[in-house]
Amino acid sequence: MPLNELIPMVNQLQEAFAPLGIPPIDLPQIAVVGSQSSGKSSVLESLVGYDFLPRGTGICTRRPLVLQLLNENVDQDYAQFAHITRRIYSFDDVKKTIQAETDRVAGNTKGVSPDPIILRVHSKNVVNLTLVDLPGLTKVPVGDQPQNISEVIRSMVLDIISRPNCIILAVTPANGDLANSDGLQIAREVDPQGQRTIGVLTKLDLMDAGTDAREILEGKVYPLYHGYVAVVNRSQKDIDTAKSMKSALMAEKDFFSTSPHYSHLANRQGTLYLSKKLNSILEDHIRSCMPDISHRVKVMLRDAQSELVQYGDDDTATEQQQRAIVLNSITRFCQNFHEYMQGNCRHKDQSVLYGPARLRHIFTVEFRQHVNTLDSRDALSDEDIHTVRRNAVGVHADLFVPNAAFETLVKQLILQLEEPAAACVRTVSEELKQLLRDVLEISKEIGRFEELRERV
User: Fold this and answer.
1) 24 and 69 share one domain
2) Which stretches make up the Dynamin-type G domain (predicted)?
3) To the nearest 10°, the Cα dihedral for 305, 311, 312, 318?
4) Pair type for strands 29-33 and 78-81
5) pLDDT tens digits along 275-311
6) Within a domain: residue 295?
7) Are 256 and 266 in contact (CB under 8 A)?
8) Of 82, 46, 40, which Cα lies nearest the Cα of 61?
9) How would DSSP label each residue in 296-310?
């Protein structure tokens, strides 16, 4: 496969797996991490060449944004969302769509969601590249955000960057202490040797007088396998005055070429170099993962085809055929349940009792132990027994205890069994429900019809 087709191929797999929530295959990707104020958005917009990301105070990226850049010889650049088939030529509309789609899923109170937004940008001015923009790491909730927002975002980021095939793009402002970089810190947790982390330094032009980032860029402070790339993005003033991306790239090039601190590194810094470097890293990474991806896709295809064969022909045209399918599905489900109840199933965790063995344990051990703790003296006192006996004999002599007295006393004692019996029923009910769910998982025939499965 030609190199320029590798990234689009992975993009297609990514879109196919997106509805599943958790992809069944660990696809190669580059995830962008950093604090809210690290300059992530500016880096991404510089790579694309347009203002297209929502901005403002607090968390701007509240859902993962899968950004697919496609190098194509088009007359006019355009964008497409996975959930919207039409082409969008205005990147202001792209920004509004991202905001609206974020609010729709994550709400408009600064909440976050792991459900990704997939955006494709077609342009002759970009390189083939796929980036996953993750919510900025934060420490303090603002407004109506939940108090655990920091933990929620952190968990979401870790879930993605902990995958072995994920390259981590850690964005860090150069005017801060590298040791306190949120992006590098969280990357180090899952990649302690820095083998799959790329460092991006922003805000070099805002560093204090007399300081520079040469030692960081030269890998002398915290070395990374893929090294560091420094960029100079537009300032807030540049954004407010609508400074063009082309002018910003020219200013960035002048900054590095004329700087006494970075001129010797100028050919390996800047947005254009970063985009080419990321493209090269991602293509090499995909190429190395291709044998495993190909094998996994073939296995998935084989399993899906095997499952499809089990479903049989899709003959549901007539009511009689529909009834036959329902009957066959329920019959197969009952057979599977019977097999489980006979102990003919292999539970994934053999260290615990499961299914019928667990039910037997509940009845013969747990319930019996509970009953054995009962004491009849707690329910009936000697005075109670004497009173019942006297009521039963009335005016007659009481040489023998009447059956009526015995039955009355036993009924009161039986009431002691109500609570442990109810607890036993609840436990058995939960165990049976779990057993039914497990049987439904293996009953492919009934799983084919969602409504029928829910009814069962």
Assistant:
1) yes
2) 24-291
3) -140
4) unpaired
5) 999 999 998 988 888 888 888 888 888 887 887 776 6
6) yes
7) yes
8) 40
9) HHHHHHHHHHHHHHH
- For residues 349 and 293, membership in a common domain is answered with no
pLDDT digits (tens, 9 = 90+) for 418-431: 888 888 888 888 88
Q: Are residues 348 and 259 in the same domain?
A: no
Which candidate, 178, 180, 190, 183, places its Cα nearest to that of 221? 178
Measured distance CA(375)–CA(416) in Å, rounded: 9
Report pTM: 0.69
Range of the domain at 429: 319-455
Q: Are residues 357 and 258 in the same domain?
A: no
Same domain flag for 282 and 343: no
Segments in 312-355 forming alpha helices (H):
319-341
The CA-atom distances, in angstroms, between 115 and each of 64, 103, 120, 227 are 7, 12, 17, 31
User: Do residue 290 and residue 331 come from a single domain?
Assistant: no
Give the list of residues 6+ apart from residue 325 with CB closer than 8 angstroms, or none. 315, 316
Contact 43, 53 (CB under 8 A): no
Question: Both 247 and 329 in a single domain?
Answer: no
Question: 77 lies in a domain?
Answer: yes
Shared domain check, 169 and 259:
yes
